[in-house]
Amino acid sequence: MPMRVMAAGLLVVALAAACGGGRDTPLDVITLAVPSSPNNLDPRVGTDEVSQKIQQLVYSTLFALNQRLEVVGLLAERWESPAPTTYVVSLRKGVRFHDGHELTSDDVVYTFTSLLDPNFISPRKGAYRMLDRVRAVDRYTVEFTLKEPFGSFPINLVIPIVPKGAGAGLRNAPIGTGPYRFVSFAVDDRVVLAPFEGYMDGAPRNGGVVIKVVPDDTMRGLELRKGGVDLVVNDLAPDIVHQLRTDPMLQVVEAPGTDYAYVGLNLRDPVLKDVRVRQALAYAVDRDAIVTHLRRGLARPAVGILPPMSWAFTPDVADYRFDPARAGALLDEAGYRDPDGPGPAPRLHLTLKVSSTEFNRLQSSVLQQDFARVGVALDVRTYEFATLYADVLKGNFQLFTLQWVGVSDPDMLRRVFHTRQMPPSGFNRGFFSNPAVDALIDEATVSNDDTRRRALFADAQRLISREVPYISLWYKTNVAVARRDLTGLRLSPSADFLFLRGVTRVPQQPTAP
Fold first, then answer.
1. Residues 285 and 213 in one domain
2. Are 80 and 185 in contact (CB under 8 A)?
3. Surface-to-core class of residue 443, CB atoms within 10 Å of its CB (0-12 exposed, 13-18 middle, 19+ buried)
4. Cα 61 to Cα 73: distance, rounded to the nearest angstrom
5. Structure-model confidence comparison of residues 10 and 298, the more confident one
6. Is the dihedral of CA 358, 359, 360, 361 positive or negative?
7. Which end of the chain, N or C, is less surrounded by CB atoms within 10 Å?
């Protein structure tokens, strides 16, 4: 199958030209490159990716997610749910903010009540619509009361805690309880963080972190090669990672991730409302080829929106492995027979809308070839992301490709596939509706029993997979490219930056001439 590779020759020449030093920070400081400046370092407000990564280092959260995406305590020492609408959280004692004062229930209450305040502007507010009130029971105990039962509520407690009374100053000068304290912020240049010796789980093993803004993808690769930065996490194109693997001064660390790429289908479309057509299109896609050639192995074929490491994931679903013959038989069954056999005349025409990024253009070309193999002519139309997204929200599409980033909770099944979540209420943009799926998700939503919820979510995933509201493509592999002298590189499923506290530099032994 012919595939274009992104300016591979120019990339090799550019990366080969990088040489020499280039460090402008002390050796025990870890310099990490990111594509843009943070928008807002107040975790209640700043939700862009770079802001959130820095917030992970400066603040601490009540809860965190483990390797199976289960909610576990961080600032919370323990928690219980004495009633379906009540959660009581006990805090760790002796946790200090960077200015020296102790974190207490007052800080937790302040953080969440600010999100409930109608005058406080935050994109996070929607996640707390079900929260009725939060109160301090005592100095180290907080009670959350919900308006109605919601089994996924604890994941909404994975949010950084700010000090009581904190105002707009957190935007550019944050104060938290995390492993690093804020030092300085130069817009479009860098954020400097120093190790916090009083961190509750022990001081970082390095002399601090510099978050350096390097907007261009190829330039980030050049900076790595010449030593101007030490580390890039998930911000290099697969082709660049492929080239950097050959550099003896660099290392590549991979770990399974939670980002999910898919083709969305409009189930109100006269052609796509037939499940046989949707299943045929799923069988037509060679996901392994996309993963191997376009993603350079930095992904794995996907079977559904929940990632395999999730505690609620079930592998027992309809898995549409590449099968052009099966695709053709289903299209025949649906009444779309090939008018000229293996000839050029198509069975039917469909339109795919994609964003104008290079990777999406390449991927859509592969989909176009795959569909043509089974007699489906695919008209690919590219748009700037804002235009594409507006059309998706309006249901103005037959097919589109997008990614869900950081899928961490099975409540995504409700938000994406429940009948009541059709726009403008939710993310069911393909207008999928199945009463049996709705009933399973409704029961799972109000249950506090994770064993029961796991069984309900598994049944929902099986039904959804047979209906094919999405054609699953791949789960992203998290990848860090770093200087060879760094140790302690351990990526989590969400690729958060907390692992940096364990990163240190080990001098490399000179190699023999």
1. no
2. no
3. middle
4. 9
5. 298
6. positive
7. C
Are 206 and 243 part of one and the same domain?
Answer: yes
* 210 lies in the same domain as 286: no
Domain residues for the domain of 91 are 60-161
The verdict on 182 and 276 lying in the same domain is: no
Residues 224 and 335 in one domain: no
Q: Which residues have a Cβ under 8 Å from the Cβ of 316 and sit 6 or more positions away?
A: 458, 462
For 223-234, what is the mean pLDDT? 97
Residue 316: name the closest of 475, 493, 454 by CA: 454
C-alpha to C-alpha distance for 45 and 120, rounded to whole angstroms = 9
User: Does 5 map to a domain?
Assistant: no
Q: What is the SS3 assignment for 174?
A: coil
H-helix or E-strand spanning residue 316: none
Residue 511 lies in a domain: no
The residue to which tokens 């025949």 are assigned: 332
Give the strand pairing for 348-355 and 209-213.
unpaired
The length of the chain is 513
Output the CA torsion 198→98→95→79 (10° steps). -130
pLDDT in tens, 104-135: 999 999 999 999 999 999 988 888 989 999 99
Looking at the fold, whether 150 and 206 belong to one and the same domain comes out as no
Contacts of 23 (CB under 8 A, 6+ apart): 31, 227, 228
- Among 380, 376, 388, 360, which residue's Cα sits nearest to residue 285? 376
What's the DSSP call for residue 498? G
Number of domains in the chain: 3
Cβ proximity of 450 and 466 under 8 Å? no
**Are 360 and 318 in a shared domain?**
yes
Of 73, 146, 138, nearest in space to 106 by CA: 138
d(CA 162, CA 33): 26
Sign of CA dihedral 31, 33, 39, 41: negative
278, 468 contact by CB (below 8 A): yes
Express each pLDDT in 376-405 by its tens digit.
Answer: 999 999 999 999 999 999 999 999 999 999
Identify whether 54 is part of a domain: no
Both 298 and 402 in one domain: the answer is yes
Residue by residue, DSSP assigns 2-43 as: ----TTHHHHHHHHHH--S----S-TTSEEEEESS--S---T
